[in-house]
Write a sequence for this structure.
């Protein structure tokens, strides 16, 4: 089952969790998607399905409250939607969001260019690299 | 199905398995055939790249993301030649007397474990890191604790030739960490022990094991197994299980031992943990230098937590901070200015937390956060925030606070913030790396799985020698205690070898 990484809602979720992702070019999005694909490739098919279903729920649940899907909301409203999921009273929903958030963070910060972008430059040379 | 036979089979190659392998290896000179079966791969030295996701995928079970059954906590443990000793920080602490005495295992004394642990301190080059190699992330912890009159202690570490890569948890790229992959396993192999990687034990039977050897996946790190891929039946005279506190109980459960061992899988603890991050106004040395040099254990008895210095990688840091959006990103952008403290809660064995298996026999960890552990995490978070501010941090990320970013101007309100702190399973980012219990030692099968020498009750040919032996939480980093227990198990096997091996 495709993960739906090409759907607008995926990019909207990513840029809400990591605002800097809005500056990614197509190559950056391709890298991010490749990391997510690789992470989920080794996981059970049911997890891939849950990921896709969760994305769909995020896109359409806001219609009930805001009258618009997630991708049509402004940044503040998107953040409110995701924060609501993060704190939902049902643990399964919180855990589902936790999983999605983890995958997004891996996709963004797991790219070497993102690590470099925040000034992280660990090296096998350690102290030697400072000199 | 290929049939092979050995005199002794050791399952797992970490702190327990590597130690048992070395300590039994002199028997090889007498013609005893010993094999170590390791599920994970054996990496070449040049494959330790320090790249976060790449190394996590190569060295950890489930890439480090093994989830509890409710999905509220990840448990990280190694899956490679050397087990978790490849990915720990090398902290090597002696077994604490207060805990060993509290375990009250008949026949097990603190003095015995202490003596054995000290043997491995010498063997694995355990020492206190020289002051000149300690970075600011660690020194600022000492500064903050000093301001607050907390008693800081330095971790003994098992490193040799550390260059300060800070990449310990991704496998040292400089071969500096003296885990079983660098010391005990090579010694054992020199003496004639065979180590077979990519070999997963499916079930254990009466002096027999069903084993599957996997292909090396395309593009994966590590050497192929020395055995052809396929299914094997191994006949043996003795089995020593050292697959860790998740996989050893699970292996016994799926092999049908639960009927005679009612405590199998019970008593699981894991030191649930999270990180508290402080941002300084200037860059500090954090991702350069050894990451974990100091700890404070003043609060174990009163508040059930331990504080340790730590430094993680970008993704793990991002995952370990709560929230999303701008406040979260602001800390990530400040990475070279971040100071980190790990809060470990001291959980206790209870009736709920245990290892079980699913329909396919895979391990399942049922874990519920105990109120004392939650309080430990909250009190640990507040104490860490105080240390970070005392060390000069301008703001702190506290995952249990309602507003996770706390400015230095609010440092005086920390107790008030603690009073309204929220710990929510599935929201608060909790992870663990010290799985323990599940095959606890004790007097008999009604209250335990093994005796004090790791022998499974009623089965003279079956031993356990890993952290699953702990009857309750160790409350400190466990590796040296695991090695000491494994040494005890090996000694008992050596003494009884003539009878057990029928020689």
């Amino acid at each position: 089952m495709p993960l739906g990484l090409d759907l607008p809602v995926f990019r909207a979720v990513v840029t809400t969790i990591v605002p800097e992702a809005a500056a990614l070019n197509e190559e950056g999005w391709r890298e991010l998607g490749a990391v997510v694909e690789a992470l989920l490739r080794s996981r059970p098919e049911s997890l891939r399905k849950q990921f896709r279903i969760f994305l769909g729920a995020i896109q359409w649940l806001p219609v009930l409250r805001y009258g618009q899907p997630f991708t049509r909301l402004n940044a503040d409203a998107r953040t409110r939607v995701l924060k609501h999921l993060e704190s939902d009273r049902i643990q399964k929903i919180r855990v589902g969001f936790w999983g999605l958030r983890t995958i997004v963070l891996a996709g963004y910060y797991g790219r070497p260019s993102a690590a470099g972008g925040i000034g992280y430059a660990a090296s096998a040379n350690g102290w030697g690299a400072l000199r | 199905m290929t049939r092979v036979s050995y005199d002794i089979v050791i399952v797992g190659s970490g702190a327990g398995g590597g130690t048992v392998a070395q300590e039994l290896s002199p028997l090889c000179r007498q013609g005893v055939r010993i094999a170590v079966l390791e599920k994970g791969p054996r990496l070449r030295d040049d494959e330790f790249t320090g790249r976060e996701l790449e190394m996590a995928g190569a060295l950890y079970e489930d890439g480090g993301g093994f989830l509890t059954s409710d999905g509220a906590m990840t448990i990280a443990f190694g899956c490679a030649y050397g087990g978790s000793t490849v990915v720990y920080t090398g902290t090597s602490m002696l077994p604490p007397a207060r805990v060993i005495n509290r375990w009250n295992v008949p026949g097990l004394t603190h003095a015995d474990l202490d003596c054995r642990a000290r043997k491995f301190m010498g063997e694995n080059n355990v020492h206190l890191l020289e002051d000149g190699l300690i970075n600011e992330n660690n020194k600022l912890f000492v500064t903050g604790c000093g301001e607050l009159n907390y008693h800081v202690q330095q971790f003994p570490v098992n490193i040799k030739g550390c260059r300060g890569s800070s990449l310990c948890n991704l496998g040292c790229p400089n071969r500096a960490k003296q885990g079983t992959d660098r010391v005990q396993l090579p010694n054992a192999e020199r003496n004639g022990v065979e180590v077979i990687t990519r070999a997963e034990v499916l079930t254990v039977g009466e002096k027999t094991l069903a084993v599957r050897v996997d292909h090396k996946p395309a593009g994966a790190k590590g050497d192929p197994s020395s055995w052809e891929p396929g299914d094997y039946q191994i006949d043996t005279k003795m089995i020593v299980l050292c697959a860790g506190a998740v996989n050893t109980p699970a292996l016994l459960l799926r092999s049908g031992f639960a009927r005679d061992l009612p405590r199998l899988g019970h008593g699981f603890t894991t030191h649930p943990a999270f990180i508290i991050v402080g941002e300084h106004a200037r860059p500090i040395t954090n991702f350069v230098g050894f990451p974990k040099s100091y700890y404070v254990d003043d609060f174990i008895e009163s508040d059930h937590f331990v504080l340790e210095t730590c430094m993680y990688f970008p993704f793990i840091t991002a995952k370990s901070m709560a929230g999303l959006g701008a406040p979260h990103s602001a800390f990530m952008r400040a990475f070279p200015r971040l100071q980190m403290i790990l809060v470990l809660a001291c959980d206790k064995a209870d009736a709920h937390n245990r290892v079980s298996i699913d329909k396919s026999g895979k391990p399942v960890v049922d874990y519920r956060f105990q109120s004392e552990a939650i309080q430990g995490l909250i009190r640990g978070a507040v104490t860490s925030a105080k240390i970070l501010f005392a060390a000069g941090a301008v703001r702190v990320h506290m995952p249990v606070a309602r507003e996770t970013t706390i400015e230095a101007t609010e440092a005086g309100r920390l107790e008030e913030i603690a009073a309204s702190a929220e710990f929510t399973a599935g929201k608060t980012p909790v992870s663990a790396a010290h799985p323990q219990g599940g095959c606890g030692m004790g007097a008999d099968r009604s209250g335990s799985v093994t005796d004090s020498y790791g022998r499974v009750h009623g089965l003279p040919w079956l031993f356990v020698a890993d952290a699953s032996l702990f009857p309750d939480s160790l409350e400190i980093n466990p590796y040296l205690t695991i090695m000491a227990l494994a040494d005890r198990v090996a000694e008992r096997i050596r003494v009884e070898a003539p009878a057990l091996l029928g020689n």
